[in-house]
Records
---
Amino acid sequence: MKTVKNETEIEFQEKKSKFIGYIKPINNKKEAEDFIKKIKKQHPNATHNCSVYSVSEKGQEYFKVDDDGEPSGTSGKPMGEILTYMGVTNLVIVATRYFGGIKLGAGGLIRNYAKTAKLAIQKSEIVDYVLTKRYVLDFSYEKSEEIDTVLRNEKIEIEKKEFSERVTYVVSLSENKVEIMEGINDIILFEY
């Protein structure tokens, strides 16, 4: 199974219409829906915020397209076809369009929304999908340098940090990364 490596964005113009493509790798349907809401909130004045996501969650496949007011089948569907064509899943794409005053026609919309999806996928980079789960790492301040070094070396991003009596991080880990973290003394690790 293939997915994309990074959350990223692309942008281009076509006949004065501005297209912005946002892409994010995901593990579940909720992440997809939350990302779509976030982008819509970021662009409340956009003409359209069309979207597509494909995700396999607990053995169930979810695939959803949304034309967001564009003529039926001219935005979400062509983006979905690009996902299928490029063989990627577990990702969400939002294509934000600001109308520039020149109508593109159905063919122009289809081409440009497909282009938005394809450029976003290419920029994000296709990789093998590895299932990750969110974990809480809890440790003493003395362990901070060691933990930070391991996370940096393993390219594990910290989603959330909290400093009180002890240090708490929220991270997403694959099975093999969980084993690495469990190998560190004096760390409390549990699923988030």
Note: The first helix runs from residue 29 to 42.
---
Amino acid sequence: MVKIADIELPDFPLLLAPMEDVSDPPFRQVCKENGADMLYTEFISSEGLIRDAIKSRKKLDIFPYERPVGIQIFGGDEDSLSIAAHIVEVTNPNVLDINFGCPVKKVVTHGAGAGVLKDIDLMVRLTEAVVKSTSLPVTVKTRLGWDESSKNIEEVAERLQDVGIKALSIHGRTRVQMYKPYADWTLIGKVKNNPRITIPVFGNGDINSPQKAVEYKNRYGVDGIMIGRAAIGYPWIFREVKHFAMTGEMLPPPTIKERVDVCRKHLQRSLEWKGEIVGVYEMRRHYTNYLKGLPNIKEYRTKLVTTKEPDAIFEVLNEIENHFQGFEFERSPIDMINYHEKCAI
């Protein structure tokens, strides 16, 4: 068992990473139903919460079926983060997570996300301010450092633990690296195996297959793994990792019926939570990933991303299921999807 404060997670838990424009309640639901042990919201601007920005407040929506769930905030000012922590506490998530890893320019240039990696003293002060402002367990998600010359994650882990965080998730790249080349888990392993570190340490970066997840668990000794981009359009990655970890065997890929069923559920939940217009529009980014691996799918995909009426979209999904009935997917359509402009850290 792995514990974040009083939150009990199974051995080697799998966490859904916070991803901007992706990790909303509809997406979180399909990931939860397919094996994710803990979910995180999209990151939320502390300044946006304080200004009562509609989009920021909407991201605070969490639902009973999601638990345990963490709300993630970001910012570069102690007062703003403290006030935001108070606002988040009212919604009663299981944990409050601080984003010190988003590499996107518009966040970094405001001294937030990975921008804080340039000033470790500031990172510690910001974290301590949040810990003191809430009764919620506080966790942090970050990167190895700002650049190759400042991979200071070992010092960061100790100092953040000292000011009270209850878990740490580490993406195996610096901010300068963004999402290339491959994530380096060596320092993640050193943090986990540091005898001073007693909080759970979760690794993140390039986990796109059950084999790699289990290999990295064994090699680096992390308490669990956070999965981001590999879950986009493929929430089955969670159940596949769990099955492989328990049995050493690979599950067969999801059938066309499973894929379309999850796509329908995701769409229906989007319509309910966002309304018809936004629900239809924002669901379009997911269809390509759900249908990855199907031959000659362009015509259907075009219909899905141009049709505005929900009933017509459901009909197209029915057509896809019928047309490809019996099609056998190859093992396994998980590639590192190019989401470099998202905070899929």
Note: The first strand starts at residue 2 and ends at 4.
---
Amino acid sequence: MTDDPRKPKAFRLEPDPASNEKSSGPKAKVEQPKAGARKARTKPKGRQPRALAAPEIHFEEPSDDALLPAIARDHTIAKRFRWGGILASGALGLAGLWAGLAATQLIEDLFARSPALGWIGTGLLALILIAAFAIILRELFGLWRLKRLGTTQADATRAISADDAKAAQATLTDLHSIYDARSDMRWGLAQLKEHSKAIMDPADRIKLAERDLMRPLDEEANRIIARAARRVSVVTAFAPAALDIALVGAQNLRMMRELATLYGGRPGTLGTMRLAKMVAGHLAVTGGLALSDGVISAVIGKGLLGRLSARFGEGAVNGILTARIGLAALELCRPLPFLTQPRPGLSDFMREVVSFGGDGEQGTQDKSDKPD
């Protein structure tokens, strides 16, 4: 080592090319780097080396079918084809062809035997075709009338909720077209026509229509439901166990058809079946067939016959179920919602259902004491 100390000396650090390129931006790309890295750093502005380039990712919205699993897509495609409808259509078409060929062969055989028999057979065949055509038209008109009641109720509900004057006018027009041909509704229609001229509010017009038209129909509907409930109670109590289900079903269908006819539906066989399906759906949604233990015990405990025989208690329960079905059918067939008139409840029919028991005379006496 030497004793001569090193003198301080100023020197300058060369900047790092990589850090200079990041910090200085486009200006650093113009400076000349080292010779070994010249080719890599003197590329045109805006381009990056391939190793540093970020891959471009394109997102595409998948179609609705791609979101479904394979089983769901197959089920959707199979549902579109409606194989059950195709099967039914093919079977009906084949049955129609067979019936036509059989009828033609029969007419030819009759003509071969005797011209008189042939003409008689032709007349009978024409009569059968005319009757079948009339029945088909009646069923179609019954379905259309039942649908019109639902449309009128929907228009009335929209007029009340949205204060829609157009829906209120459509509701009144439908009511006039439904009840114009009925003699028992002429007074109500005249009152409605007279009072509606002075009322402009849509909700008030619907309330006026309910007051003038629905009150007598609701009273008759309550009598129909009460009569059906009593009939079902008696049928269940006295009919054999093998027949009570069929008899109760027939009474319920009859009650629903009477209610629809009362409110202007007049459904045929298909219309009644459709109404029964609608009632079943309505009860399934609202839970209308659920009976609590308190109601069952109260019904079974009513009257001396209910205490002595479980069969009469079962009849009372079936009567209450019939009353609930009738109330659901009333709500579906009534062309206007309940606004000014009281909505009937199950408690209104309890006395009617259990009147065949020990409290029957008392219930009749109470009803007769009420003023008209």
Note: The CA atoms of residues 19 and 28 lie 10 Å apart.
---
Amino acid sequence: MRVAAFVYWNLGVQYLKILLEAGHEIVSVITVPDNLKMLPEGYSVEEFAYDNLLPLYKPSLNRINSPEFIDVLKRLKLDLIVACYFPKILCSDILNIPRLGCINTHPSLLPKDRGMFPVFMPIIRRDRTAGITIFSLNSGIDTGDIITQRSFTLEERETGLSITEKLCSVGAELFKEILPLVEEGKAPRKPQNKDDSTYFSWKSSFARINWGQTTEEIDALIRALGGLYGGAYSFLEGRKVIFNSALPVSEYINSFKDFSIPGQLVARSGLGYLVKTGDGLIEIIDIKYEDNKKPTIEENLSSSNLKMIFS
């Protein structure tokens, strides 16, 4: 098959590997620019395309559905478009180009959590399971017929990185299984039940810590967003602070019962700092100012009199 791949992130890399191993011709890889300094090894579609001499396109997202780019895709005589974590809705003129249509991958069990990038929401909601869906693209937002999907169990201390790795592993297995059926035009199609659908669209403000929430809720937010997804954040004396790692605390609660203000720094610990939450304490392990200017967060907190309050 002649395939165009609109792909990103680690699962996008795995899809390209599977297509090449199966002997398909990848006539274009369409992706968005990577920040290689922030990506774990093996996550860069851009790097993989360069290393494997694949034709790479990085148009600005507002030109993806332009007549000029549509004309480029038409001239490629495509059999299939494969999409994965691509941050732009493809117009109907693009969807109608490939002989076998377009398949997409979504990091949820559709029709639950339609919308932009709900990868870490199962952790934030403290769900026990998560899942991934491969489906046929149409002009709606994640509304196409389901081809295949699979769920998996979440560990107690799941992180944004660990759930991303699981989604990649399960998604690659599903894609490899279903690809021969897609090529033969025999892939199953199950319409989504719109009555069961939910929609999610991530906003950066969701990453701000509400210190009045429970320790469990704040811990889940930091685990979900720490490191790979930019971290949860708060403010200290007007400067934005990024939280990448934390642990819930129970053994010291009675010692600091007089600290009643959520967000207040109450003590330094062996690993970091104890901060008051809505119902107890959380131990902050990895913390930094976003602007990286002096004084550092460690210098500020080490010289504090434990009256500082995150907001």
Note: Residues 123 and 158 are 7 Å apart (CA to CA).
